[in-house]
Each structure stands twice: as C-alpha cells, then as structure tokens.
Task: structure prediction
Amino acid sequence: MPKYITKNLFLSSLKCPTYGHLQQQQPTQPTTSPSDQLRIDEGIEVQERARNLFPTGVLVSGSNETCINRTRELLANPEVSTIFEATFQSGPYITKADILVRNNSKWKMIEIKSAVNQSDEHINDIAYTTFVALQSGLEISSCSLMLINKDYRLGMTDDNLLVEIDLSAKVSVRANEFCELSDSIAQVLSSEEQPAPDLKWECKHCEIFEECCGEGIDNDMRVLGRA
Ligand code: SF4
Result:
C-alpha cells in the first residue's frame, strides 16, 4: 500500500476496486491535451481569485508531513481565521481543504470548483475531505461549494465571480458513508491480490477497458456498455 491514500485513489477505488488497485501499483501519467491544460489553468485562476476574497488567509505548502504539522499549528492559533490547503491525515488517508474559515470553535470548509453547475462528483470531493478532516479531529460547522457565478460578466469584481452553496446536509451523509467504507478500501489497496474485474457501468469510460474486462470484447460491445 502507498504511504498515503489520496482523494483520487479513494474515489477511484470506490468506483472500481480493480482500477484503484491498479492505479496505486502503476499510477497512470495522463497525457494533457490543450483543452485539459486550459481547464487546469482556469482552475488555478479560480482558486487564486477565490483566495483573494479572504485577504488574511494563510497558505499551507511543502511536503505532506510539513503541511500536516503546519496545519495543526495554524488551527491552534486563534489569530488565524482562514487557512488555504489545510492538510489532514487519518490513518492512511490524506486530504487538503481548499479553504477553511474559523467559525468560533469550529471551521467552515469550502471547496472551489471552476464549474457553473453542481455535480455529484463535487459532493464526493467535499465528502472525502470532510471524512478525513473529521476523523483527524477537526470540528466542522458547515461545508460549502464555491462555483462560478452564471451571471458573472467580464470586468466584474471577484466578489461577483463565485457563488457559495451550502451542502452540509448532503456532505454529512456521504462523509459518513465514506467513513464506513474506508477500512474495506484500505484493505483492498493494501492487499497484494488484485480484485477480480467485473463488467459494470464504469467500464464504459474506463481508460484500461481493453486490457481489463474488455479483453476480447469488440468496440461495439463497449459502446453498448452493460447492454
Ligand atoms: S475495465 Fe471495468 S473492471 Fe476493469 S478497471 Fe476499468 S472499471 Fe474496473
């Protein structure tokens, strides 16, 4: 098992244990197309502009160990009201919260996405971070998603760029589910034995379909998915 299980690895394993197991053995280096790069650049810009809304925020950076220790210090410092990239570990699981805002003795967690519409993947992202942060001892008052404001127009200020949606109720339910599954996923990832593949909906878009359970199945079958 790798030293840390990241959000990507956890969520991949949740969709397909075989894929998660393979990913940790041989992490894929996805090729970055120009449109991928554009999305990455947009994501970075949105993160920076979201941080501008919290001028007293403190950024955590460095190795995982450094970030975990620095986060502990900042959480314990009552003069710190906002933390960017606060890093938490619980057992093998590790995560970073985009923005944490102090709310009396608790913290509001905010995830930034360069999207205009909320999706189930966004809930999964925040739920994973919430589960790990809660398990590491953080007290959370609420969980929000910051998305691009559909009404934003060029030239408007950063205040108008993002809208915040409170997803605390949904995130709490999903974080509990993740917590219950976390031991079995860690077990799968720590096993030397690869879980046997089984044909399912996720296979349709899986990048290793041909080498996995798509071996011997022609492309038409893949298009048909589980049909
Ligand atoms: S092809 Fe299907 S079973 Fe194989 S790794 Fe991908 S999603 Fe999992």
